[in-house]
Design brief:
0% of the residues lie in helices and 40% in strands. The radius of gyration is 16 Å and the shape is globular. β5 and β6 form a beta hairpin. The protein has two domains: 48 residues; 84 residues. The chain has 141 residues and is mainly beta. It has no helices and eight strands.
């Protein structure tokens, strides 16, 4: 999704932040603040923490229906809901290829990564952000 993540390392998700109260949203959007206690109408693009902790996870064994695109042949993949503590968000996303539900646990630290989702009929690679197990060094920004 264009504008939802950076394409240079270190990869980060791009959300939006209310300039009035500081509430974050993902995916990025404009318009009114999602905080019901705020009358703000100015959401500004904001890079989000690149690391978070798994809040919940599952595994998908079925290709999504049209208009969604999946690799052909379809391969099962894990999904994780990841809590970004600093922003107060839980963001659902695919887990990196090769990492399945059996490899995950609640509270596990993960970080944003990119992978090719599929290659279109013209040979153009379409990229998606994923959650990958975090490298042992470093911490949340």
């Amino acid at each position: 999704m264009d504008g939802w993540f950076t394409t240079e390392e270190p990869y980060t998700l791009i959300g939006a932040r209310c300039s009035a109260c500081g509430t974050y949203v993902f995916p990025p959007r404009s318009g009114a603040c999602p905080n019901p206690g705020c009358d703000g109408t100015d959401l500004e693009p904001a890079e989000l923490s690149r690391r978070g902790r798994i809040w919940s996870y599952t595994e998908n064994h079925y290709a999504p229906p049209a208009p969604y695109v999946a690799a052909d042949p379809f391969e099962p993949y894990a999904l994780a809901a990841v809590e970004l503590e600093a922003e107060g968000l839980v963001i659902l996303g695919q887990v990196a290829k090769g990492v399945m539900a059996a490899d995950l646990e609640i509270g596990m630290e993960v970080e944003v990564d990119l992978q090719v989702l599929f290659t279109d009929d013209d040979g153009v690679e379409k990229w998606v952000w994923t959650w990958a197990p975090a490298a042992p060094s470093g911490g949340a920004r």
